[in-house]
Design brief:
- This protein is an alpha/beta fold and 390 residues long.
- It is 25% helix and 29% strand.
- Strands 1, 2, 3, 9, 10, 11, 12, 20 and 21 form a 9-stranded mixed sheet that branches.
- Strand 2 (12-18), helix 1 and strand 3 form a beta-alpha-beta unit.
- The radius of gyration is 21 Å and the shape is globular.
Length: 390
């Protein structure tokens, strides 16, 4: 498609936030509440976009509640149609299932999210606080003196905006950060996932099991969870180990049918007619995560293996911290603010890597299989700078 370049609109913002997911929306919200002029840029149709969609990583853990409460966002969660999460069932390290319930968690139950509705509620809160919104895609970022030049594609035109700071919240695409820093990949993990229709044919009862089920298999692991749109089913394996049959609807169903426990959760569901979707699922880290006039947050800064169940929680926390950090930078404490932000992300990454090594180390039934062999005694940080750039 041909595009035409328009002259600068003359618009200038203190901060442009690229990406309207949880991290970007919360960063914009925090900044707007400090009185900053903030523009949130995303390629969705409008800021309240709620078209049905699904992704892997739909569960909001109980630990997210205090942050959402502090941000004044918890009422949005309870008002929307999110399903209560009652815990996890896992066949990991043993063919038997063990149950980890949320009933004793001091923060209460988690939620299985309608992600489109959840993300839209965060964007709406940011706009209510004064954030401006533009449907566009960031295509280029330049530093020009002390200013940040942002080029946006809107329809067939390229527009230029100026700002003091830009926040990269574009997820794993990392549109801004990838041109200014190195990305370090943890492994080759990918996810094939599909949504099974919640309609129950032949008079069968409704699916009332609101626990997440995780099941290890020789070539990787599966998980399934009820979400408002139906039942999400995902298979995680390394890209070079993925059986070709997983790319077809029948092949995906056939592999799911070989599981011991997950297959029982699919009884009565309508199989998806389309091929499963695929997405990268490996841990990923940007280094450095910030520089002169820019900062990355959410998955653009630090993405996790879905086994952690911490993706949305980390996006919310890093988004809020990014907003506070940029506000401090605009007040003149740039070096101190960026140093503290980097240390904050380092702490999250270190905790994640420790938990990742521990949980994968619990599964030792198939030590000769390449997937598990690669993860045995996985104690060295593969996301550290200087190792395995993406």
């Amino acid at each position: 498609m041909n595009t035409r370049t328009t002259p600068s609109t003359g618009e200038r913002f203190e901060v442009v936030v690229a990406g309207g997911g949880p991290a970007g929306a919360v960063a914009a919200l925090v900044l707007a509440r400090t009185g900053r002029r903030v523009l949130l840029v995303d390629d969705h149709a409008d800021p309240s976009w709620t078209t049905a969609r699904f992704t892997i990583g739909e569960t909001l853990p109980p630990a997210a509640r205090p942050l959402l409460h502090d941000l004044g966002l918890w009422p949005h969660v309870t008002a929307d149609r999110h399903l209560r999460s009652t815990g996890i069932l896992a066949s990991w390290g043993s063919p038997e299932l063990y149950d980890r319930s949320d009933v004793l968690d001091p923060n209460g139950h988690g939620r299985h999210l309608d992600r489109a509705r959840f993300d839209a509620s965060l964007r709406s809160a940011a706009l209510a606080a004064g954030t401006e919104f533009r449907r566009a895609t960031v295509v280029r970022h330049h530093t020009r003196g002390s200013e940040q030049q942002i080029l946006l594609r809107r329809g067939g035109a390229i527009e230029e905006l100026l700002c003091d700071w830009v926040v990269d919240a574009t997820g794993r695409r990392c549109i801004i950060g990838r041109r200014r820093a190195a990305r370090h990949r943890q492994d080759r993990l990918v996810a094939a996932y599909a949504l099974f229709d919640r309609r129950m044919p032949h008079g069968r009862g409704a699916d009332e099991d609101l626990r997440t089920l995780v099941e290890a298999v020789p070539g990787g692991w599966w998980y399934t969870v009820r979400i408002p749109a139906g039942r999400l089913v995902a298979h995680l394996t390394d890209a070079d180990l993925a059986p070709p049959a997983l790319r077809t609807p029948t092949g995906f169903l056939a592999h799911a049918a070989r599981t011991l426990h997950l297959r029982t959760r699919l009884d009565g569901y309508v199989p998806p007619p389309a091929a499963p979707r695929w997405t990268a699922a490996h841990g990923l880290r940007l280094s450095p995560t910030a520089g002169a006039g820019w900062l990355a947050t959410g998955d653009a800064a630090l993405a996790f293996d879905p086994l952690s169940s911490q993706g949305i929680l980390t996006a919310l926390h890093t988004g809020a911290h990014a907003g506070h950090t940029v506000d401090l930078c605009l007040r003149g404490t740039v070096t101190e603010a960026l140093t503290e932000y980097t240390a904050f992300l380092d702490g999250i990454a270190d905790a994640y890597l420790g938990h990742h090594a521990y949980y994968y180390g619990q599964e030792r039934r198939w030590p000769a299989h390449p997937f598990w062999k690669r993860r045995i005694n996985f104690s060295v940080s593969p996301m550290a700078p200087g190792q395995r750039p993406a």
